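hey so i finally got around to running the thing on that chain from the lab meeting. sorry it took forever, my laptop kept dying and i had to restart like 3 times. anyway pasting the input first so we r on the same page abt which one it is
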Amino acid sequence: MENYREALEKCPGGFQMDWSVYEWEDAHKGDRYYMLRVGEGNTGIVFHGEFLSDPYEGGDWAGNGKKRHYVDICCLDAVDPDNRPLITLEELQNAIPEIDWVKGHSGQLLTKEEGDILDELFNKTRPIM
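ok and heres what got predicted. didnt touch it at all, straight out
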């Protein structure tokens, strides 16, 4: 969380990092994504962006010796996790109830229709920069 807040402060227009993905076989450079904060507190979409690379194998971030795949991502419209998310969990559940928004597991591929609904919802709530 400290690194995330530091990136927000240093690069308010956006920043880059890598992220592990489970369904890496379906991930491709150029794919769009939305980052969801789950757990306690202000849950919901906290930033969005695009995959800057195809998936690649890397070390296990959790130290369990598991095979992990990562993508390089750009992060746009990021918000402080202590503030309201860009789209709340409740808004997501109302807009696309077919998705289990609370399980949180490094990625879930949406159908084109679900993606279009999420894009429309985001465009309605997008922060003015």
